[in-house]
Amino acid sequence: MDVLSHAWQRMQFRWQHSVFGHRWLTALLASLLVLSGLVMHAWWQQRQLQQALQQPVPKALLSSQLNVAASAPALWQQWPAEEEADRISAEILAQADAMGMLFERAEFQSLPAERSRLQVQRIKLPLKGDYLQVRQFLQTVLQAYPSLALSQFKLQRSDVMQTGIEAYVEFSLYTRKRGQS
Questions:
Q1: Residue 142 has what DSSP assignment?
Q2: Neighbour-count burial of 157, counting CB atoms closer than 10 A to its CB (0-12 exposed, 13-18 middle, 19+ buried)
Q3: How do residues 144-176 score in pLDDT, each as one tens digit?
Q4: DSSP structural state of residue 115
């Protein structure tokens, strides 16, 4: 037993006088080891990603992408024609009115989309109502018209105690240009 105790004491003495006996140095070495491991892991992941990017794309994936691209014109052709833009804009205003929201003016601006078969009609609409009315209005018109996008939306409430809010809504209605099918 005395031999084991003596060996244990010698081991403790050597440990205390070795590099590992200094706590700050031990912490530094451990941090360096962890950091080196992280750098090696990042390098390995980058190498694997580069190898994967150099592999040819499987034909099954290419054919599925071509099928999606081929169906895109069919979806585009379902969008309303440019002649329907005024009718749709009037329906949007009627929907806001039917939901009890107040608006004094609405601005409309029709622009061709560059290098495209599309026409864009901007609809700028300042509204007054409560939060739930505005939310329901947006949900209703965006679901009703798939080619309608919410371009800008701002809310303002002048007093915390009021339920009414002022909202500024700008839509972009995308339609097919005249003569495009």
A1: H
A2: middle
A3: 998 899 999 999 888 878 888 899 999 999 888
A4: T
Single out the residue of 154, 167, 72, 79 nearest to residue 121, CA to CA: 79
Spatial neighbors of 161 by CB under 8 A, at least 6 apart, are none
Helix (H) or strand (E) holding 170: strand 164-176
Q: Which residues contact 29 (CB under 8 A, 6 or more apart)?
A: 19
Residue with structure tokens 């105690």? Answer: 161
Strand order across the 148-156 sheet: 107-112, 118-130, 164-176, 148-156
pTM value? 0.55
Output the six-digit token pair for 78. Answer: 């379902």
Residue with token string 């440019």:
82
| 3-class SS of residue 5 | helix
